[in-house]
Amino acid sequence: MSETTGASYAAAGVDIEAGDRAVELMKEWVKKTQRPEVAGLGGLGGFAGLFDASALKRYERPLLASATDGVGTKVDLARKMGVYDTIGHDLVGMVVDDLVVCGAEPLFMTDYICVGKVHPERVAAIVKGIAEGCVLAGCALVGGETAEHPGLLGPDDFDVAGAGTGVVEADRLLGPDRIRKGDAVIAMASSGLHSNGYSLVRHVFFDRAGWSLDRQVEEFGRTLGEELLEPTRIYSLDCLALTRTTEVHGFSHVTGGGLANNLARVIPDGLHATVDRSTWTPGAVFDLVGKAGQVEQLELEKTLNMGVGMIAIVPAESVDAALTTLADRGIDSWVAGEITERGAHTSGAELVGGYAR
C-alpha cells in the first residue's frame, strides 16, 4: 500500500515564507515615504493603511481625488532586463500625475504586485522603486498587496498596479470651467516614452526591426533597453508649485491617446487648443519608432507623448512666472500653443505645423 502526501499551499506553488521575507525587505523603503499624517499609525503588514484625516481640517471644503493605473507592457521589458527598481517610478507617475490634473495634492498610495512566484529580493526592488517615486511625488506609501499566482503567471512574470488619493480645496479645483480664450498652453518635456504605447514600441523594435535590448543605439547614447526603461517623469510637485506661484487654469497629463486627445479632455465646449509642433523637437526614440516601424506621424501622435508629458494652461500674463517656476525646478518647458474659439470644423485640440529639427 503506497503512501500519499496531502495537498498543501506550498505544493500548489504559493510560498508564504517567501512572501513574509519580501515584506521584511521592503519595510525600510516604505518607511522613507512617511508623511506626518501616517507616522506612528500602524505600519506595514497590517490589514489596511491608515492616514490621519484630521490634517484636512485646514481645508474649508476638502475634495478627495482618486486615481488608479498600471504601467502596461513596460513590465515585460523590466523582466527581460532583470531591472526591477525603476518600474515603480512609472507606476507612481501614472497615478499621481492624474491626481494633480484637478489640482489635488497626492496624499497616499497603495500598490498591487502580482507575481508567478515570489522572489523576495525582486519584490522588494519593485517596492523600492514605488517608494522612491512616492518620495518624488510627496505622498506616502501606506500599504499594498503582493499576490502569488502560480499556474496563471510564469515564475518570472509579474504585473503592478496602484491607486492614489489626493485632496484639493473645492474653490481651487481645476477643470475645463476655468479655461479661457487667450490662455497659453505650456508644454513640459517628458523623460522619454514614459509608460504608454509599449505594445506598439515592442512590436516595432522587436517584431519588425529585430533589435535586441542590448543593442547599442547611437542616437540614444546607450542600449535600446536602457532607453526603453527610462522612468516616467513625475510632475506632481512641479504642478503644485505652479499653482502656488502663479494662476493656473488647468493641467493635462499626456498618457495613452497622445497629446491632442488628452489635452482635449480638459478643453470646454466652444474653445479649442492649438499646439504648434515647431516649438519643440521630439526625442530620438520617437523618431526611431516611426522609422523602424514605418509608423505614420498621426499614428505616433495618437499613441506616444512625442516629448511632452504634462501640459499647463495659464493666463497669458502668467506665462513668464510659470516658465520661471518650472525652470527653477529643473523642468524644461515652453509655450507650445494657445486657447482660441472653436470653429465649425475644429475639435477640442489639434497639433499644427511641423516639428523643429
From TrEMBL:
The keyword Repressor does not apply. SUPFAM superfamilies: PurM C-terminal domain-like, PurM N-terminal domain-like. NCBIfam families: purM. Pathway: Purine metabolism; IMP biosynthesis via de novo pathway; 5-amino-1-(5-phospho-D-ribosyl)imidazole from N(2)-formyl-N(1)-(5-phospho-D-ribosyl)glycinamide: step 2/2. Belongs to the AIR synthase family. It catalyses: 2-formamido-N(1)-(5-O-phospho-beta-D-ribosyl)acetamidine + ATP = 5-amino-1-(5-phospho-beta-D-ribosyl)imidazole + ADP + phosphate + H(+). Its EC number is 6.3.3.1. It is found in: Cytoplasm. This is Phosphoribosylformylglycinamidine cyclo-ligase. Keywords: ATP-binding, Cytoplasm, Ligase, Nucleotide-binding, Purine biosynthesis. Residues 180-345 form the PurM-like C-terminal domain. The gene is purM. GO terms for molecular function: phosphoribosylformylglycinamidine cyclo-ligase activity.
